[in-house]
Amino acid sequence: MDLQGFLKALARRWPTVVVCLVLAVGAALAVTSLSTPVFEARTQLFVATRTGDDTVDLNQGQTFSQARVQSYAEIVRTRQVTAPVVKQLRLRTTPEELASRITAVVPLKTVLIDITVRDTAPQRAARIANAVAKRFSSVIEQLETPKSSVRSPRSEKGAKGDGAAPVSPVSLGVTQEAIAPTGPATPRPLLNLAAGVLGGLLLAAGLVALRETLDTTFKSSEAVGEFISLPGLGTIPYDRNAPRQPLVSADGHSTRAEAFRKLRTNLQFSQVDDPPRIIVVTSSVPGEGKTNTAINLALSLAEGGVSTCLVDGDLRRPCVAPTFGLVQDAGLTTVLIGQARLEDVMQEVAGGLSVLASGAVPPNPAELLGSARMEEVLRELADMYQVVVVDTAPLLPVADTVGLASLAQGALLVVRAAKTSRDQVRTAAEALERVGVRVLGTVFSMAPVSKGGRYGGYGAYGQHGELPAPRMSALLEGRGASALTNPTDGK
């Protein structure tokens, strides 16, 4: 997945991003509110050497201090320092616990030692820091006092005044006493909030990437074409009013109506040399919009002046007749069993479209649809109409469509956006190829509508590229069925 695709995935799954941000920011705020404030008090010591006034002695003393000051910093948290401080200040803690709250840092190339003490009370943090600095200075000076210079009591009695008391070569002075801090060092609300936002974004990105990896559905018509190497003939946008108003002819200038006109045009131009007369419209599984696609494609062809017949070939769940409000009991099955002729059961709807309903639901749909009589019926319809559009059952649940598709001259495979999986589409395409039917292309249904997907003020824009119905009809009469594939004359 490239960066652009990942950003589109984030935009598409924006609820996941929002939920992750809310959870992460809420956790950060909760941590901030539940955390006990901790204050930091800092004091600074200067390590000096006792030398003479000679410049060489001064330089040597400076070098000596820098060489040892790092070792001094490690002594700050030893028990020699912390135990007397705990006793002196009567702290309710142990020397080891106090040591964990003390930090000593030596700035680079200096003889300074910064001692920081953390505590839940600001005044107590300052008192502890100053007490630690004082005790630390005393410990260092004791450690640095030369023991070899100390005389025994007997020698001191025998030589009064002959030996001086040993003196430490270093001394530690306080350059900055600790004062009570005005604000806590932790928690930091802004830092926690920023960490929450960043954590939420990272969590959202990870979840979106995982869902995109596990999601095997299609998000665009181009993705379907790349997957099964079939042309995408049309993209039908999602319309929440489609269940109540399935026929696009009722709103001729909607985005959905324009999509079906584009599907009609692409279908006509895609098969210029060998235009199919009998087209089955099918899908992998139920609920992908195949019946809606078949109905509105047939209506669009009829409105464009093409003599069209719509056949309801889904004998298990017929939906064509109820959509138009037609009689369903007499239709295809009535003709197949010889109880009526096509002319007797053919019904007309507005727009010049002829509809052959399914008829009574039979107990053996697969046998009827794959029979020789079905092939004869389709040939008769092809002789009567320029295009025969057959709505069929889904390919994967039942075997009805496989036998029927082998009798057709072309098939359209409907794929629902973000619903149909790759495996389902692959299996459906392979099933059509096995029976030798020519798959004309795919129709990407119920696709999300982009913000710029509506025509807005260009309500009649789609009509500029369409032949007027009377003119197209006359053109077809003069040129025959081949005019289906070349409607460009007279633009």
UniProtKB/TrEMBL annotation:
Residues 144-167 are annotated as: Disordered. Keywords: ATP-binding, Cell inner membrane, Cell membrane, Kinase, Membrane, Nucleotide-binding, Transferase, Transmembrane, Transmembrane helix, Tyrosine-protein kinase. The keyword Oxidoreductase does not apply. GO terms for cellular component: plasma membrane. Residues 1-89 form the Polysaccharide chain length determinant N-terminal domain. Pfam families: AAA_31, Wzz. It is found in: Cell inner membrane. InterPro entries: AAA_dom, Bact_polysacc_biosynth/exp, LPS_length_determ_N, P-loop_NTPase, Wzc-like_C. It catalyses: L-tyrosyl-[protein] + ATP = O-phospho-L-tyrosyl-[protein] + ADP + H(+). Residues 277-406 form the AAA domain. Its main location: membrane. The keyword Cell inner membrane applies. GO terms for molecular function: ATP binding; non-membrane spanning protein tyrosine kinase activity. It is a multi-pass membrane protein. It is an enzyme of class 2 (transferase). Belongs to the CpsD/CapB family. Belongs to the CpsC/CapA family. This is non-specific protein-tyrosine kinase. It comes from Streptomyces humidus.
